[in-house]
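Would you kindly consider the sequence and fold I have copied below?
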Amino acid sequence: MSYAQRKQLSGNPVVAWILTILLVGGLLYAIVTGLAYNVVKKGMENLKVIDVEAPPPPPAKPPPPPPDMPKLPPPPVTPPPLVQLQAPTPPIQTITTPVIPPVQPPAPPMAPPPPRKVQSAESAKGDLRTLFSADDYPASAQAAGAEGTSQATITIGTDGRVVGCNIIRSSGNSALDAQTCNIIRRRAKYVPARDSNGQPTTDTLTTPPITWRLEG
């Protein structure tokens, strides 16, 4: 340091003190910082971490058993009184029966018209009056002295036999009328009528008057 500088510093004591303080403070900071770092580093190296577990708590003591209670008989049970409830009267149901109309059966199919008769029956034995004789006179009519004329309508079957007889003119005596039909049924024989197909068919004829008269 030159003389001029020393003279300048010695001439300004305040600046000299500030510089001195800064210099001393820097040294102290450097010393303290370095020493503290070495001490902390070495202490950390020697430091051993040990995990210490806390001991478990002792088990809880079980509660003391309850004192023996005297056995008491169960209280008597009284059944509740029976309450009879009256069932409500069921409502009256009115059932209306539906009216079902009767089922009309289907109309039967119309039968085809019968074949038309083209040939009437003819007597195979001629006049019917020749079939009667005096021996055919009913005994009751003879005893009563009954006489008269009978006439009938007869039905001829497909075989030419008389299958029906109906008196249309009475002689006045029932025995004579009945004998008239009996003889015609037994003795009359006809050639049957024919239809348009040529097949035998039934026919109805009116007999000639049959007169019953006593002899003598």
